[in-house]
Amino acid sequence: MKKKDFVTLILSTVGGILFALGMCMALLPEWDALLPGVVLSVLGAAVLLAMVPVRRKMDGKPAIVFNGKVIGTTLLGILGAVVLGLGMCLIMVWNRMVPGILIGTAGIVLLLCLIPAIKGLK
Fold first, then answer.
1. For residues 8 and 50, is the Cβ–Cβ distance under 8 A?
2. How big is the CA angle at 61 (ends 55 and 67), to the nearest 5 degrees?
3. Which of 19, 25, 49, 60 makes the best surface tag, with the fewest CB within 10 Å?
4. Over the stretch 31-85, which tens digit does the pLDDT of each residue have?
5. Angle, CA of 83, 81 and 12, to the nearest 5°
């Protein structure tokens, strides 16, 4: 195993565990640990976000490169994830089955649009 793969494995495991544990602490009312859960989740998300520039530096690439394509696909991905999450909330939280399915399907379509946006059409 290469050093960069091992570092990525460790950072992603630690960040994922911190984030998941923090979300459980924040969202499970039985645990009654909202504030520490939010802090732990933010810490886990920071470790996961720090993994990207660390991995790129170990590959010999610049830490972060911003151009029009990267920003556009990032915004499309965020929008698709938010729309899909809204559809899931409509179904599971607010008991609105039909609008939830329609909005969730629109989110899935937006996320599927990422494939040609990233790979390009040939």
1. no
2. 105
3. 60
4. 999 999 999 999 999 999 999 899 889 988 887 777 777 778 888 899 999 999 9
5. 160
Longest CA pairwise span in the chain (Å):
53
Amino acid type, 100? G
Token pair for 122 = 């040939």
CA angle 9, 14, 19 (to 5 degrees): 125
Question: What pLDDT shows up at residue 107?
Answer: 95
Helix (H, G, I), strand (E, B) or coil at 28: coil
Domain boundaries of the chain, sorted by first residue? 3-58, 68-119
Region of residue 120 (phi > 0: left; psi between -120 and 50: alpha; otherwise: beta): left
60 phi/psi in degrees, rounded to 5? 85, 15
- The Cα 31–Cα 86 span in angstroms is 26
Task: Give the residue among 26, 51, 29 at the shortest CA–CA distance from 39.
Answer: 26
Closest CA to 40 of 24, 19, 12: 19
Return the structure tokens found at 62. Answer: 């610049």
